[in-house]
């Protein structure tokens, strides 16, 4: 019997980080240009690499060297650093890190899980430069490698980094420019670290809070998601030295039952109108794509020619590099059980994956790069995979290296990274503030005046916490599951940060009493162990201290939520708060009189909390995972120095039994005749400390003859701040009623804008509306017809203000052809 393959990434206690060894020995001069010697070439260092040079390189490479370029290897899984002499422990072959290049000719390395071999910036650059120089000088073809990693909400790979608010928070801001500014900072840091590839933005639509990656997804609205993702891709690539990655193509965000990497719950109609458009938008700015680790309509995306070639290459014209996700050729066998987990199954997986369109395989903890290369070479030699197909991929990979300037400038200066790490503080603080969503504010209990005595209690917000988990950062922060590694010390590694306790203490001094409650982050636990994204408790001593403080306080701020988590380890089956937190709220409720304000602050990567808890609280602020500037942002908001403006980027169902129920689903949203409340807070919900009124909604054109030639219009509306505080306000224009040949979504967001208005003043806002948002797939169940905006009347609304838009002609804005691959359409490879 062929041997069984095993797959077990990140088992209990696993860590993806080790320290680099002997980097100082490899330190190199600044800005030095290492000799770039292509086989048989006579180029000088100064000559820019051209496309013809790429062709010459390709011609001079052996099949083995080419397949090596298609191989990306995870370093650090078993302790490897960047020293070429380091033993390569993750797999049996090769023996050293250096031999990955000299023997296997690998084209790329990655440090997965936001943790490199060191958290020190200069050490990182010196190490990477040393390895790059080795790869160029010691290999026959002298091609530099690409380094990739996950800097997904800031460059969370280095000690002292700015951890920007997580993607869920970014969605709440609707502030595309600011989100892009954060991405520019991240991209510059990756470039200054010597890196070339950032595996973001994540463009997977959010619908299911049970999914452990919910915090990554920006929004459940396709248009908002697409705009944010495109801006982030553009920002990451701004330096010209870093490639962004649109991931995980396509449909990864709707895994069945919310289980990470399960098959997608979708339909052709849903894919074409609500899922694919966001990826398509983001692709305009990204040089690479990462594949969905799950399956779409019963076909794993990694072997789907329809997904990777017919849609991505032929319909969208994407000509960049497609990289697999972590060990995903093997996961076809171990996760999807698509073929027996045998040598034959493995060979089939490699063949099908490459044939479907994957250019580079990410070899993580389980797939040995040597084995991938052997298998692929053998497939070419036996004629099962044409060499032309290999050439296509290698050409794209070399072209990417050329575009990023790796051939001219393979090394970077060591002295730049230091001044960048921890930067963009203004951007981070503003984003954090804008991302907070005020959910509830009974009797205007907020803002606090600042003169009160306040009891702060709850888990995970202690100031001066050593380098261990806090609840404010989330996954991909100095570690895969969040800040997770290193011995506990007072001085790091950890992100630059202000904490809720620290910022409140600064304001209140002795008027603050802080009683932290128990919190143990257990990153590698899972729902099967009754995991609540952290273990929470209130000890007897803490309970006594809370009761005592509660009897002499004016307000209680209770922090609630969940610990950092990621991927499958973050999957959850509950929406209500962990029992200890529910009991904590009941405790403060019972221990305080009616005149004491009870305020909840939710730090979580998903909608955590139900009416059972919220009904006991006078005010509730959903803070998400605001990152480095959490403390300042939350305190400024609680005390009224900042007037909250964030809007929920998702639907907050009443309880987990109603998941998934997105705001743009088809009606009905509840069972026939059932009056039950299924939604707790709607998409777009968000209160302010002032009041807003809209008047005079008008459209630049209320009749559109042909939406194909008129894809945008402008809505104008006057926004009046009728309250007593200045504030920012997000104006959102929705389609709230329309009829057609198929069901229309409950509501659809067409456009939004953020505006600042002084107390008592008004501003007229012009919001650009993207009419492609109104596209549907007409026809019967198969859903293959071109996407169109159907003729008819569309009610558009801003609050209670409405206007009617009349579309005279049914026409397609984005995709006038039938579903990709449909008989007779472009790209007939996948006829149905
Ligand atoms: C994730 C990717 C990530 C990769 C590298 C995978 O487990 O699905 O999103 O980019 O690891 O860390």
UniProtKB/TrEMBL annotation:
Family assignment from sequence similarity: Belongs to the glycosyl hydrolase 3 family.
UniProt xrefs under InterPro entries: Cellulose_Degrad_GH3, Fn3-like, GH, Glyco_hydro_3_C, Glyco_hydro_3_C_sf, Glyco_hydro_3_N, Glyco_hydro_3_N_sf, Ig-like_fold
One of the GO biological process terms: glucan catabolic process
Disordered as annotated region, ranges: 30-51, 810-832
Catalytic activity field: Hydrolysis of terminal, non-reducing beta-D-glucosyl residues with release of beta-D-glucose
Species assigned in the record: Natrialba taiwanensis DSM 12281
Alphabetized GO MF terms: beta-glucosidase activity
Domain spans labelled Fibronectin type III-like: 729-802
Domain of life: Archaea
Name recorded for this polypeptide: beta-glucosidase
Entries under Pfam families matching the protein: Fn3-like, Glyco_hydro_3, Glyco_hydro_3_C
């Amino acid at each position: 019997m062929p041997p069984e393959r095993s797959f077990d990434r990140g088992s209990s206690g696993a860590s993806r980080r080790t320290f680099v060894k002997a980097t100082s020995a490899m330190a190199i001069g600044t800005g030095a240009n290492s000799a770039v010697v292509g086989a048989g070439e006579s180029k000088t260092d100064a000559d820019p690499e051209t496309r013809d040079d790429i062709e010459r390189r390709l011609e001079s490479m052996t099949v083995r060297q080419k397949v090596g370029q298609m191989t990306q290897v995870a370093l650090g899984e078993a302790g490897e650093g960047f020293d070429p002499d380091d033993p390569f422990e993750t797999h049996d072959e090769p023996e050293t890190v250096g031999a990955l290049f000299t023997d296997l000719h690998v084209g790329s390395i990655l440090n997965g899980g936001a943790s490199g071999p060191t958290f020190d910036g200069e050490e990182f650059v010196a190490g990477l430069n040393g390895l790059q120089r080795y790869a160029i000088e010691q290999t026959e073809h002298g091609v530099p490698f690409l380094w990739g990693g996950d800097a997904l909400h800031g460059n969370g790979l280095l000690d002292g980094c700015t951890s920007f608010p997580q993607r869920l928070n970014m969605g709440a801001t609707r502030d595309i420019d600011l989100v892009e500014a954060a991405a520019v900072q991240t991209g510059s840091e990756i470039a200054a670290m010597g890196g070339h590839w950032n595996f973001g933005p994540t463009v997977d639509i959010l619908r299911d809070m049970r999914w452990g990656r919910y915090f990554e997804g920006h929004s459940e609205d396709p248009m908002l998601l697409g705009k944010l993702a495109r801006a982030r891709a553009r920002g990451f690539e701004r330096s010209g030295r870093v490639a962004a990655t649109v991931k995980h193509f396509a449909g990864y965000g709707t895994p069945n039952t919310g289980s990470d990497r399960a098959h997608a719950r979708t339909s052709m109609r849903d894919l074409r109108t609500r899922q694919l458009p966001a990826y398509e938008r983001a692709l305009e700015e990204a040089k690479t794509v990462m594949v969905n680790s799950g399956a779409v309509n019963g076909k794993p995306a990694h072997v789907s020619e329809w997904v990777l070639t017919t849609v991505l290459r032929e319909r969208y014209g994407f000509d960049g590099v497609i990289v697999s996700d972590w060990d995903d050729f093997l996961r076809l066998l171990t996760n999807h059980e698509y073929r027996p987990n045998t040598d034959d199954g493995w060979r089939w997986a490699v063949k099908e994956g490459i044939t479907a369109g994957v250019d580079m395989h990410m070899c993580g903890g389980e797939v040995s790069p040597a084995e991938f290369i052997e298998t692929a070479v053998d497939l070419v030699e036996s004629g099962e995979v044409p060499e032309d197909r290999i050439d296509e991929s290698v050409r794209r990979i070399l072209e990417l290296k050329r575009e990023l300037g790796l051939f001219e400038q393979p090394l970077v200066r060591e002295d730049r990274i230091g001044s960048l790490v921890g930067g963009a503080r203004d951007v981070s603080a503003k984003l954090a503030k804008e991302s907070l969503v005020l959910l509830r504010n009974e009797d205007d209990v907020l803002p606090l005046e600042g003169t009160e005595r306040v009891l702060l209690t709850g888990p995970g917000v202690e100031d001066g916490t050593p380098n261990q988990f806090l609840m404010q950062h989330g996954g991909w922060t100095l570690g895969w599951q969040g800040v997770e590694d290193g011995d506990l010390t007072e001085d790091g590694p950890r992100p630059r940060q202000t904490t809720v306790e620290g910022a409140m203490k600064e304001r209140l001094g002795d008027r603050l009493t802080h009683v932290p409650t128990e919190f143990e982050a257990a990153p590698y636990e899972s729902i099967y162990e009754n995991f609540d994204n952290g273990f929470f408790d209130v000890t007897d001593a803490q309970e006594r201290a809370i009761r005592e403080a509660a009897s002499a306080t004016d307000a209680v701020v209770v922090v609630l939520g969940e610990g950092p988590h990621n991927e499958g380890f973050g999957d959850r089956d509950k929406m209500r708060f962990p029992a200890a937190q529910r009991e904590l709220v009941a405790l403060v409720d019972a221990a305080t009189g009616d005149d004491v304000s009870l305020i909840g602050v939710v730090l979580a990567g998903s909608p955590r909390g139900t009416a059972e808890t919220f009904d006991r609280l006078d005010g509730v602020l959903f803070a998400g995972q605001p990152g480095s500037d959490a403390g300042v942002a939350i305190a400024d908001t609680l005390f009224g120095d900042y007037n909250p403006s964030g809007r929920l980027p998702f639907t907050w169902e009443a309880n987990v039994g109603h998941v998934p129920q997105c705001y743009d689903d088809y009606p009905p949203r509840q069972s026939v005749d059932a009056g039950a409340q299924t939604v707790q807070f709607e998409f777009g919900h968000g209160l302010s400390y002032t009041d807003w009124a809209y008047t005079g909604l008008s459209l630049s054109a209320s009749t559109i003859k042909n939406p194909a030639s008129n894809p945008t219009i402008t809505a104008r509306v006057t926004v009046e701040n009728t309250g007593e505080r200045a504030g920012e306000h997000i104006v959102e224009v929705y389609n709230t009623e329309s009829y057609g040949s198929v069901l229309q979504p409950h509501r659809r967001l067409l456009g939004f804008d953020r505006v600042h208005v002084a107390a008592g003043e008004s501003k007229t806002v012009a919001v650009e509306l993207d009419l492609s948002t109104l596209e549907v797939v007409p026809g019967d169940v198969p859903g293959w017809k071109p996407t169109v905006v159907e003729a008819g009347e569309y009610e558009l609304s801003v609050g209670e203000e409405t206007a009617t838009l009349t579309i005279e002609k049914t026409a397609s804005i984005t995709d006038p052809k039938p579903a990709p691959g449909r008989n007779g359409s472009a790209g007939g490879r996948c006829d149905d």
